Inverse folding.
């Protein structure tokens, strides 16, 4: 039991800190270069080998570690030193509840590919997301710099506001799947539903041709709750404070916002936190809206039934585990690509536009989404009786 | 000592130290707020150890995440300096604080010495605290949680109406000052 948990933590930690976080700086620079018709990072080399600029993350880390770590005079020393950690730790521990694979029967034991399979998984994400604001707030205050304080004030207001929209936009998907457990949500998306099945609600069954039953869509959150999906992505990207929501950083107005007074690896930790959060956002989006580890139109039972007669049940299950974990990380990579694309595609918001978007547009829309979803669920429930 | 008991002592120690840090700290309001956060998060961890997961998540989300962030926001926005209270005022606060803390401590000690009282039972419809506490502390059984919005729908809605009235009232008050 304990060994299994340690292995899972090691796997997730290695994937995030060992693979995604270092590669992200390179991906961001290369993707922006491709989108802007430039070449991008390609100068760092070892004996003339540049590896498409893949050595840049390495040189960045060496530079950040060897730089002097400056604490400004008049700063609150302790808070200034610990606030980068307060930014990076919540980002890292959020991944504990995100399932990167399903539940499998292998020999005697049952294997569950999620670090902490809690019943209150979504609430855990909200709780951890809400304490993530302290890194931003304290770093700005502790730096004893007006620009930093402005940045952290902007940051705290933005994060409090978008937390509300983030929570409300997920209520619809919680109602549809009827659970707060992320592994159950992913499992529920391992099936398909009939695209035109809703016509039965109007009693139009008899007029439809027989082949309508064959038009099926994966039972994914994005198809069941399209509005909730878009609003959740917007809100959680605003929580992460990356462009187009980078008001707390505000490079053109307030230098670098809340981390103006940071240098060396402590500055690097803020960047690491942002990049880890991009991975976490991709993981949450995948688990709740993009079917998690499931392969569309190919449920777990179909795979195991299909190949177990040829290679045996246990090898079929292992094959299934490998396929599912791969599918999960491919979907995560896709969501990272979407976020990076949005970062370079959209212009920045002005601060009043940012607040208007949250309080005047997304909040009423998400409330309406909840009411409409509840009414439709009641209707379906009534038809089933 | 099992790992749960060891964790309980760690979090209990952090909670008590955080509370003391908040009480004994007059110079720096932000540091006091951080001590409060430490206490709130430790309480959430103790709720997890007790098996009250929903309560733990709400504790961290509402108290540590929202309320103290708003405290910090207000402290920064008002720019309260460390010398805002004169020494005589600080002495007054200390005396009041010691009196109130002593009173509460006395109450707690007498209650613990005499055995904890049963939850008060109230008429049906306004739901006993015991049932709400039972629903919130329920170990992993989500159905009992639905009691909060099922059987206790009337108190629940009354509380939300009161909150709405408070919001409208504060908006009216703030507007009047602007004009």
């Amino acid at each position: 039991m304990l060994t299994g948990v340690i292995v899972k933590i090691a796997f997730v930690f290695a994937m995030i800190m060992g693979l995604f976080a270092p590669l992200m700086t390179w991906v961001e620079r290369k993707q922006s270069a491709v989108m802007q018709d430039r070449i991008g990072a390609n100068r760092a080399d070892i004996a003339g080998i540049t590896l498409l600029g893949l050595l840049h993350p390495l040189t960045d880390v060496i530079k950040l570690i060897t730089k002097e770590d400056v604490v400004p005079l008049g700063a609150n020393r302790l808070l200034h030193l610990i606030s980068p950690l307060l930014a990076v730790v919540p980002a890292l521990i959020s991944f504990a509840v995100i399932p990167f694979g399903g539940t499998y029967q292998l020999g005697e034991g049952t294997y569950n590919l999620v670090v902490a399979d809690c019943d209150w998984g979504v609430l855990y994400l909200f709780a951890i997301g809400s304490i993530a604001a302290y890194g931003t707030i304290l770093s700005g205050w502790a730096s004893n710099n007006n620009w930093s304080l402005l940045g952290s004030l902007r940051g705290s207001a933005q994060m409090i506001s978008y937390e509300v929209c983030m929570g409300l936009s997920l209520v619809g998907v919680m109602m549809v799947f009827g659970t707060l457990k992320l592994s159950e949500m992913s499992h529920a998306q391992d099936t398909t539903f009939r695209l035109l099945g809703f016509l039965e609600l109007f009693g139009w069954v008899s007029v439809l041709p027989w082949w309508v039953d064959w038009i099926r869509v994966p039972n994914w959150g994005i198809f069941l709750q399209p509005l909730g999906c878009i609003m959740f992505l917007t809100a959680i990207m605003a929580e992460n404070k990356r462009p187009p929501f980078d008001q707390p950083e505000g490079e053109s107005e307030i230098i670098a916002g809340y981390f103006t007074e940071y240098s060396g690896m402590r500055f690097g930790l803020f960047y690491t936190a942002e990049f880890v959060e991009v991975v976490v956002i991709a993981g949450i989006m995948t688990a709740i809206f993009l079917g998690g580890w499931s392969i569309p139109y190919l449920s777990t039972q179909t795979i195991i039934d299909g190949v177990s007669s040829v290679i045996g049940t246990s090898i079929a299950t292992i094959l299934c585990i490998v396929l599912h974990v791969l599918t999960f990380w491919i979907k995560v990579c896709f969501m990272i690509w979407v976020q990076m694309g949005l970062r370079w595609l959209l212009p920045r918001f002005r601060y009043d536009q940012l607040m208007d978007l949250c309080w005047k547009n997304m909040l009423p829309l998400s409330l309406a989404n909840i009411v409409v979803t509840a009414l439709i669920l009641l209707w379906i429930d009534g038809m089933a009786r | 000592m099992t790992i749960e008991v060891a964790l309980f002592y760690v979090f209990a120690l952090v909670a008590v130290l955080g509370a003391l840090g908040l009480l004994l700290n007059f110079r720096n309001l932000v540091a006091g707020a951080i001590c409060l956060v430490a206490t709130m998060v430790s309480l959430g961890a103790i709720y997890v150890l007790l098996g009250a997961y929903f309560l733990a998540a709400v504790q961290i989300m509402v108290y540590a995440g929202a309320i103290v962030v708003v405290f910090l926001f207000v402290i920064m926005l008002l720019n309260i300096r460390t010398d805002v209270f004169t020494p005589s005022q600080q002495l007054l606060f200390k005396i009041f604080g010691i009196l109130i803390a002593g009173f509460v401590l006395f109450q707690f000690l007498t209650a613990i010495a005499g055995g904890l009282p049963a939850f008060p039972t109230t008429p049906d419809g306004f739901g006993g605290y015991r049932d709400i506490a039972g629903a919130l502390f329920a170990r992993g059984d989500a159905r009992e949680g639905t009691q909060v919005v099922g059987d206790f729908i009337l108190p629940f809605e009354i509380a939300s109406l009161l909150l709405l009235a408070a919001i409208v009232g504060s908006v009216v008050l703030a507007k009047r000052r602007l004009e």
Remarks:
- Residues 87-113 of chain B form the longest helix (27 residues).
- Helices of chain B lie at 3-23, 29-50, 53-78, 87-113, 129-137, 142-145, 153-178.
- Chain B has three domains: 1-81, 85-117, 119-179.
